[in-house]
Amino acid sequence: MRLVEGDFSRETAYSDDPAAVAAAFAADGARWLHIVDLDGARTGSPAHEKAIGAIVAAVGGSVGIEVAGGIRTAETARAVLARGATRIVIGTAALRDPLFAAALVAEHGPARVVAAIDVRDGRARGDGWAGDAPGTDAAAAVASLADAGVTTFEVTAIDRDGLLKGPDLDLLERLVHLARGRVIASGGVSTVDDLRAVRAIGCSGAIVGRALYEGRLTVGAAVEAIDAARASGD
Questions:
Q1: In CA terms, which of 116, 138, 145, 211 is 20 to 30 Å from 94?
Q2: How far apart are CA 93 and CA 200, in angstroms?
Q3: For the whole model, what pTM was predicted?
Q4: What angle do CA 36, 19, 82 make, to 5 degrees?
Q5: Cβ contacts of residue 214 below 8 Å, gap of 6+?
Q6: Along the 234 residues of the chain, how does pLDDT read in single tens digits?
Q7: Vertex 127 angle, CA 214 and 91, to 5°
Q8: With contact defined as beta carbons under 8 Å apart, do 19 and 39 qualify?
Q9: Cα separations in angstroms, 173 against 29, 155, 177, 232
Q10: What domains are defined for the chain?
């Protein structure tokens, strides 16, 4: 399922078999799968453990799996990792309390804990993007979480998410230039040119969603383009 700008009233269901979708992406060459428990993000605790477990069982031995949505306690983080996730993505709880992120990094290591920096109007937002809280300045949020030991940040331009209009390169470049960790681009990435563009400004990866589901981009084409760019030094 995909939302537009995180709005649950603008959702599209593409399949009722997430494990089969995951297997198809893995067969096409995906090296990582980004899984979001959307209901978990909205309610504050995971809601789809069974579906995520099925994905791990289907492809966990062949691709990296990161899980986001509703991971707001140390116990939940441990449970998600114990079920086979390669790493977890934390947002709301980490923005509220960087010490929470620091504790997870200390327990699990920086390779297994990623911070979600979901940005609207320059502010990092939590609570499934639905709350009225003003959020935290995005650059300040990155700096604070980097000080807590986080080394990977997934940056989503909320106003680009699900719209296939290209990534917010200005936002991504500002956060890349902080040089506080790896930045993975999210929101609007929908073409091979988008992938090349985020790589050119220093992003270490990109998350693609709707474009894959609607056949505008394939995993194979994306992997081929990035591998070619690496080989040529671009």
A1: 211
A2: 31
A3: 0.90
A4: 60
A5: none
A6: 444 444 444 445 556 899 999 999 999 999 999 999 988 888 888 888 999 999 999 998 899 999 999 999 999 999 999 999 999 999 999 999 999 999 999 999 999 999 999 999 999 988 766 666 678 999 999 999 999 999 999 999 999 987 788 999 999 999 999 999 999 999 999 999 999 999 999 999 999 999 999 999 999 999 999 999 888 877
A7: 80
A8: no
A9: 28, 11, 6, 22
A10: 2-232 (3.20.20.70)
Buried b (16+ CB within 10 A) or exposed e, 198-231: bbebebebbbbbbbbbeeebbbeebeebbeeeee
Residue written as token pair 């992003």: 203
Q: How many other β-carbons are positioned within 10 Å of the β-carbon of residue 192?
A: 16
The residue whose two tokens read 């000080």 is: 147
